[in-house]
Amino acid sequence: MTPPLRLLLVGGFLGAGKTTLLAAATRRLAARGFTVGLVTNDQAADLVDTALLSRDGTPVEEVTGSCFCCNYDGLLDAVRSLADRGATAVVAEPVGSCTDLSATILQPTKDRHADVRLAPFSVLVEPDRLDEIENDRSVLHVNARYIADLQLQEADRILLTKVDALTPAKRTALRDTLARRYPKIPVHEVSAATGEGLEAWLDDVLAGAPGGARLLDVNYDRYAEGEAVLGWFNASYRLTSPDARPDWAACSSALMHDLQEAFRSESAAVGHLKLLLTTAEGSLAANLTSLSGAVQLRRDGALDARTATLVVNARVQMSPERLSALVASGMARAHAGHCEVAVSTQHSLSPGRPNPTHRYDRVVAVPTGAPALLSA
Ligand SMILES: Nc1nc2c(ncn2[C@@H]2O[C@H](COP(=O)(O)OP(=O)(O)O)[C@@H](O)[C@H]2O)c(=O)[nH]1
Ligand SMILES: [Mg+2]
């Protein structure tokens, strides 16, 4: 008998570490004998995440234009397409501002797709974000914080991420915070950077009961406002330099720091700011996940080429028009005198009110005694 397809949903707020965890989980699931497919999700096309995850040849499907909950069929089509291409485990990353996934994705999947074995729903929480919210230092809008809280309330497992960057004292304090706020939900402490906790997490979710043990009472007005306060900007550019060996890393770093400064001067909370610069032989990824955090840059391979493509994704607490204007002026300053910039695609928006395809008001029980499902 063909074992059912494994489906693992990895949620959590913008910048929590979902995509990095997907990449790490892909390698570890492959080592356990699974053929892995990935699904990314965004309100608009041109995702840095998709480009990053596709780099090592893993099949990635992108569901764009709305969150999974408002395009359930898009998610299922993506999962089916990956299964048709041989995937035995699919890991899917919903948009970081999305919640109520238990009612809108997990219950319908259990109810309608007996051939899919749903893992417990893992929701990631970023240490600094949790710390800021807990200690009232977050500049996130109150309803964006409401979303971040609901995401954790509906989790089957909470993953405290990036623990490699924590002192032991901070780690203990955050563990206590999670135990107090979400007392019934098991917590894993993980680092996708060092691998800490990842095998234990996979052991747990591959053996665990299907996801969606609890349902939320969600105020959709608050949810809609929490999403709408975030401006969304995705763009791709073609860069051409007159120099044989342009310093692409310096330009990208300048752009990231310029934008961080601009967001700081407006006290605008940063969900995330990401860029991916790609040349024929290498790439440079840059990330910023909070106003006060450090810009992370990661270079792979050689960047010595006169042309490059650049993808920029930003989710920042300001109007999409203001965000577009700030990125445009940042791009001009960072590249002036270095290269010509041609815009290939550009989308900016603030997410519309969520209107889920399905919304269950009951927890769907999956019959026990189903066929032996535990092997790949
Ligand atoms: N120190 C550290 N940084 C991490 C880890 N996982 C992710 N990050 C960083 O967090 C930022 C956001 O990660 P990403 O996976 O894109 O988050 P997403 O928005 O939730 O998908 C990036 O700069 C990552 O390099 C980790 O385990 N340790
Ligand atoms: Mg991501």
Explain what the structure shows.
This protein is α/β, with parallel strands linked by helices and 376 residues long. It has two domains: 5-225, Rossmann fold (3-Layer(aba) Sandwich); 230-349, Alpha-Beta Plaits, CATH 3.30.70. 35% of the residues lie in helices and 24% in strands. α6 (142-153) crosses α9. The radius of gyration is 20 Å and the shape is globular. Residues 18-19, 49, 93 line the site of magnesium ion.
Q: Keywords, please?
A:
376 residues; alpha/beta; Rossmann fold; Alpha-Beta Plaits; 2 domains; eight-stranded parallel sheet; 24% strand; disordered C terminus; binds guanosine-5'-diphosphate; binds magnesium ion
> What is the H-and-E element order?
EHEHEHEHEEHHEHEHHEHEEEEHE
Structural class: alpha/beta
The backbone outline, from C-alpha atoms, is: globular
Name the bound molecules: guanosine-5'-diphosphate, magnesium ion
CATH architecture of the largest domain: 3-Layer(aba) Sandwich
Put simply, the count of helices is 11
> CATH first level of the largest domain: which class?
Alpha Beta
End-to-end Cα distance: 12 Å
Q: By CATH's scheme, which homologous superfamily of the largest domain applies?
A: P-loop containing nucleotide triphosphate hydrolases
CA radius of gyration is 20 Å
Largest sheet: 8 strands, parallel
In terms of DSSP E residues, the strand content is 15-25%
The number of domains is 2
Low-confidence parts, pLDDT < 50 over ≥5 residues?
369-376
Give the integer mean of the pLDDT values.
95
